[in-house]
Amino acid sequence: MATLVLDTVPQPHVLTIAGSDSGGGAGIQADLKTIAAHGCYGSSVITALTAQNTLGVQAVHTVPPEFVVEQLKSLFDDDLKPLAIKFGMLAGESTIAALADYLSALPSRPFLVLDPVMVSTSGHHLLPDAATQTLVSRLLPLVDLVTPNIPEAQALAQYGEQVQSVQDMLKLAEAVRGLTNRAVLLKGGHLPLPRAQVAALATSEGLDVQWDEAGEEGVRVIDDFRQTLNLAATSPTVVVDILASPAGVRLFAGKHVSSSSTHGTGCTLSAALASQYAMENTAAGAEAEEGDKNLSPAGVRRAIEYVQSAIATAHPMGRGHGPLNHSHLTSRRALPPPTAHNPTPFVSHLIRSCPELWDEYIRHPFVVQLGEGTLPRKSFEHYISQDYHYLVHYARAHALGAYKSTTMEDIKAFSEIALHIARESTMHVAYCEQFGITKAKLLATPEAAACAAYARYIIDVGTQGDVLDVYVAVASCLIGYAEVGLWLKSRIATGETKLEGNPYARWVEDYSGEEFLGAVRRGIANLEARVAADPPSPERLARLTEVWTECVRLERNFWEMGLKVLW
């Protein structure tokens, strides 16, 4: 049985210090979307307001440096200290100096990622030339990872040579690393290179290259499949990103994605890198020591792949360079996770999905008359005779669940329930004998149509589906009978349910008793834990809801069969 957990999940805190993009594709808007997509908590310090869209930046309003620092102080004053910070558009020399002064004075600093935003995709200058030297001399020595593209790296390092090959990029990366002595991720998006050329160089120079899923030569069977979709073979060109750090040099080679949806690429990558660090740090359980803040190569690769997929899955927007699809890795949950506020989102959804049918089931005249003690004896005798047949198939369904299970925990749970039903059937026979129905008579009584339809439906669902389908198929009986039992018990105080002199009092007591309710509580907890651990898609939830609704209808028909002694 799965364990239900109601604890909330901690979100690593990542701060973005950048400009605001009114178009939503870059700046803090892109950063916060990226941070959220990684399951982190995002906060922001705004350095500038921009009026921009996919065609370009029309205007910039710089936030006073003093107010930028005030925003930062409000987070760091023992309240919302982040695990990682990414810097984007810093707007001007005085803002850079103010940030450097504040961060230098901190007793310890978060992991710092700098995206040296200088020129927008449309060519608008976002950082005055005079501020570049302040960036290099004051802020760059503080950061743990800097992520320039080729033109930005050339500006930072005052590197005048042309960059046209991997060897040129390696020299440039080391030139930038000389300014920081920490890590540099040189982005190669401006220089797509032939895959074969990069592979040959890696072999001859002994370079450490992390290839995309296509590898050095591509995967022929995938290329063949792409042709069936009228797609070109794996791109012969790759984008090479170079990570140069104290630990060495590593290259990341990935497919070049031809797309106009590239606005905010640098913002997105740096935010993804900061988020990856925060996630790794949280998983490790302790903050890294000062001077020992490093993002693993695997984290770098995941961030790069996130950006590549965000570009590849973006639908064109606007008339210029459109935004990335930041939410491509996030799936829309059909249900919220269980919490202390609502520990039963799945079961509550099932019950709410068919309110009228559910009410007809748990408030059926059979149930009402049973509680009052006015139910005709022949109706109850017909019901308990058919219920014996149902118990046989109910046990079969749980045995089928054990067969479908892939863990010893589930096999044990289903098997124990099947054994419990077998023991319950023995007691059921003894209970029937109190009404003059012998076991021989039970076995000789044919199944009524309502019983056969219900029992076979459960078996059919279990045969077609998986373990969760089995659990849902048997849940309406378990949960519904508990609701009926508790409802009848609640009516004792008003006299609407009578125990004294009621020939069916034991039935009421059994289904409102602690032993049965204990099984129901375990069943609900198991259902909720399973759905929380493996959230169903909207389509899957619709199918499970359909199973539940049909079983509720069949349960109602079972009462109707008993009340009217139908065959």
From TrEMBL:
> Example GO biological process term?
thiamine biosynthetic process
Which InterPro entries did the record assign?
Answer: Haem_Oase-like_multi-hlx (IPR016084), HMP/HMP-P_kinase_dom (IPR004399), PM/HMP-P_kinase-1 (IPR013749), Ribokinase-like (IPR029056), Thiaminase-2/PQQC (IPR004305), Thiaminase_II (IPR027574)
Q: Where is this region: Disordered?
A: 316-341
User: What is this protein called in UniProt?
Assistant: Phosphomethylpyrimidine kinase
Q: Name one GO molecular function term.
A: hydroxymethylpyrimidine kinase activity
Annotated Thiaminase-2/PQQC domain residues:
356-563
- The species this protein belongs to is Apiotrichum porosum
- Where do the coiled-coil regions begin and end? none
A GO CC annotation given for this chain? cytosol
Start and end residues of each Pyridoxamine kinase/Phosphomethylpyrimidine kinase domain = 21-199, 236-325
- Matches recorded under Pfam families: Phos_pyr_kin, TENA_THI-4
